[in-house]
Amino acid sequence: MIKNVLFVALALLCLGCTFETPTVFSEKALNDTFISTHGEPITFQEILEEYKGKKILVNVWASWCGDCREALPEEKRLFEEYPEVVFLHLSLDRDIESWKAGIEKLGIEGEHYFMKSGWKGDFGEFLNLNWIPRYLIVNEKGEIEMFKATKPTDKLIKENLKK
């Protein structure tokens, strides 16, 4: 009986906890290394600097992911509706060859980088990554405006892209 009461009390306590959504990337996430389509290593900080002054829709995905492939038509509609937005795809494919083949086969438009460190690297850990696709929106200053969406139809995506 006491165990049940303690469990319920702990559960209620956890329900009352609020988890703050980050507005900036951690130093570790910024320093995580990705691979460009040209095979060059690049940090996430360098990627953000490349697109500074532009709104960025980040999509963490993989070509083997059924949900990721299913989301592509809606993402393409967003790409056409918001041509001023940078569509940044960060791949969790198993290897670079599969990643590049997936981009071509699926006809994914936008910017592409391979997540060398994978799910459990510094960038994945910062996101508390547990599902893909995963969408974030980064504003023109490099700040996180939207931290988590798992579908391109999420109303927060359009709301933040319109800002």
Structural features, described:
The protein is α/β, with parallel strands linked by helices and 163 residues long. It has one domain: Glutaredoxin (3-Layer(aba) Sandwich), CATH 3.40.30. The protein has seven helices and seven strands; from the N terminus they run ααββαβαβαβαββα. Strands 2-1-5-4-3-6-7 form a seven-stranded mixed sheet. It is globular and about 35 Å long. The N terminus is likely disordered.
**CATH architectural category:** 3-Layer(aba) Sandwich
Low-confidence regions? 3-19
Helix and strand run: HHEEHEHEHEHEEH
Shape: globular
CATH topology-level name: Glutaredoxin
Q: What's a concise summary of this model?
A:
The chain is built from seven helices and seven strands; from the N terminus they run ααββαβαβαβαββα.
Topology:
Blueprint: H1 2-16, H2 27-31, E1 33-36, E2 41-43, H3 44-50, E3 56-61, H4 66-81, E4 86-91, H5 96-106, E5 111-114, H6 122-127, E6 134-138, E7 144-149, H7 155-162
Parallel strand pairs: 3-4, 4-5
Antiparallel strand pairs: 1-2, 1-5, 3-6, 6-7
Throw out a few tags for this protein.
42% helix; 163 residues; disordered N terminus; alpha/beta; Glutaredoxin
